[in-house]
Amino acid sequence: MHRKEIPVTERVVLAYSGGLDTSVAIGWIAEETGAEVIAVAVDVGQGGEDLDVIRKRALACGAVEAEVADAKDEFAEEYCLPAIKANARYMDRYPLVSALSRPAIVKHLVAAAKKHDASIVAHGCTGKGNDQVRFEAGIQALGPDLKCIAPVRDYAMTRDKAIAFCEAKQLPIATTKKSPYSIDQNVFGRAIETGFLEDIWNAPIEDIFEYTSNPAEPREADEVVISFASGVPVAIDGRPVTVLQAIQQLNERAGAQGIGRIDMVEDRLVGIKSREVYEAPGAIALITAHQELENVTVERELARFKRQVEQRWGELVYDGLWFSPLKRALDGFIEEANQQVTGDIRMTLHAGTAVVTGRRSERSLYDFDLATYDTGDTFDQSKAQGFIDIFALSAKIAAKRDLV
After folding, report:
1. With respect to CATH, is domain 11-169 assigned 3.40.50.620?
2. In b/e form, how buried is each residue of 115-143, taking b as 16+ CB within 10 angstroms?
3. Which CATH class is domain 372-402?
4. Is 199 part of any known ligand binding site?
5. What pLDDT was estimated at residue 1?
6. What does the pLDDT look like over 22-64, one tens digit per residue?
7. Residue 10 annotated as binding site
8. Is there a catalytic annotation at residue 117?
9. Contact 51, 24 (CB under 8 A)
10. What is the residue-wise DSSP string for 88-103?
11. Pick the catalytic residue: 43, 89, 131, 190?
12. CA-based angle 221:224:228, to the nearest 5?
């Protein structure tokens, strides 16, 4: 493998998780490049070890500096909330769990690079996934002068080599048997791939799930009322919540009902199809509620066009273009479209489904007197025939021509 020449005095900012691969990457990068490594760990609600433990491990593994950031509220408000407002589901199913976390992490990596006068940012992605693009496209957008390296991709740092390096250097990180799955998680959801799941005929087993209970198990239904103000979830059952708290509470309640499991074959940006299993109970519950409230409060033509924007927005985020000009422009449209999305949605959470059972809003466009078929109907049906004649006129004229 061709060795990348980097000045001895160079500094590299590494996206650090605290696990084996990125812990080994600290020393690996130093040996391969001669550079000093600054480790940056960002908490986006993935759970696991305490941030201070992770920081100390990075230093023990050879980092000259180690920074940790509790970014859970930031991630929820600046990344998950826009996805909720956009009803974002890639390929109409995946609520962008991993794709949303990458730009949040990138923002902290670039800030650390500027702070520590580093000109290189490193990450632990492979060369066949989406995340390498999400990291590097984001880094280039926020720090156009920064370079990127990926030890697993650029230096063939396989897991076997990582374990051997760890043992040779006696690094303070466990080298237990690798899980058969590749897992990425944050407060918005959890992604599971590889292992026996790579055979797309194999069904997922219960052991792979953590955020959700088996939806087939008998249990009592759970009724919840979610309140929104201009598209922002602001209360659960009348109790005020932050965006983070709304996601966390619905992760627990919807997760207990087995809601938010997704098993799909998706189109990766790099051109291959990949089998992915997701669980995102809070995300699915919130998007379901938000979408239904839009049905009540958003005017028809705006709603129709927004659905087109939502699909493109989701594709841009999935493809790693969070910081792109088009994504920013679409953000403005989505924000404007959410101005009237205020009110309450009642849902029944049960047996793997979140079913909307009630809607109310002071900004509602639903007019009972126009909608009713009973006494009090204010819709003037006598005007319908003329409307239909004019509406269908162009098709009628074309039909007369084509039938000749």
Report:
1. yes
2. ebebbbbbbbbeeebbbbbbbbbbbbbbb
3. mainly alpha
4. no
5. 43
6. 888 898 898 888 999 999 999 999 998 899 999 999 999 999 9
7. no
8. no
9. no
10. --BTTTB--HHHHHHH
11. 131
12. 155
